[in-house]
Design a protein that fits this description.
Largest sheet: 5 strands, parallel
Distance between the termini: 22 Å
Number of domains: 1
Shape: globular
Order of helices and strands: HEHEHHHEHEHHHEH
Oligomer: single chain
CATH superfamily: P-loop containing nucleotide triphosphate hydrolases
Radius of gyration: 17 Å
Helix content: 40-55%
Number of strands: 5
Length: about 200
């Protein structure tokens, strides 16, 4: 997990000591993490917009994520996902929820982490808890094929491998919130407390 720079020494010019202004909060995590639930709460608290990257892709393609996977396959979806993330990178005053697999693209991960005006947050929870949330209908599927995730839920080994593969990418985020035992508004409050200590919002 990337650390954040501490303020410079007192002898540095004033501009060097100022916190950067935050333009984006990016929420990352596996399916069931709660990105699409916490995101709107954050956006409302800040007076910002909320966007779900899957919805951005659906609008651009005029198809649902499930239809894109069905008609074109995962490789096609991932390319559209990369393009959508690139389009969103310069949006201001926005909370953006990524798909579960968005950060597997190294260029996308690097782009999102390189901006001083972007804070990426990893919403973490044990895999069994994430899967229970999906089965209970509490969260979206995060770019994992929409309705086609249900057969995937029956292939536990495949899901576990996918989760393990993605964890290092998620952990590259600026900070992590472990969401177990927390209500969505509590997760949002923790994120807000953190960013207000390090950025101007």
């Amino acid at each position: 997990m990337l650390g954040l720079s501490e303020p410079s020494h007192k002898t540095a010019p004033p501009a060097a000591r100022e916190s950067p202004r935050l333009n984006q909060i990016v929420l990352a995590g596996f399916m069931g993490a709660g990105k699409s639930t916490v995101g709107p709460l954050l956006a409302q608290a800040l007076g910002w917009r909320f966007a779900d990257l899957d919805h951005v892709i659906e609008i651009a393609c005029a198809k649902t994520v499930a239809e894109i996977f069905r008609d074109h396959g995962e490789a096609y979806f991932r390319q559209r996902e990369k393009e959508a993330a690139e389009r969103m990178r310069n949006e201001r005053s926005i909370v953006l929820a990524l798909g579960g697999g968005t950060l597997e693209d190294p260029e996308t991960l690097s782009t999102l982490l390189s901006s001083a005006a972007t804070c990426m947050v990893f919403l973490d929870a044990p895999l069994p808890e994430l899967l229970a949330r999906i089965q209970d209908g509490d969260s979206g599927n995060g770019g994992d094929g929409g309705d086609e995730v249900r057969p995937l839920l029956r292939r536990q080994e495949e899901l576990q491998a996918r989760h393990r593969r993605r964890l290092p990418h998620y952990r590259a985020a600026h900070f992590t919130v472990v969401t177990s035992g927390l209500q969505p508004h509590e997760v949002a409050e923790r994120i807000l407390s953190h960013v207000r200590q390090r950025w101007l919002v």
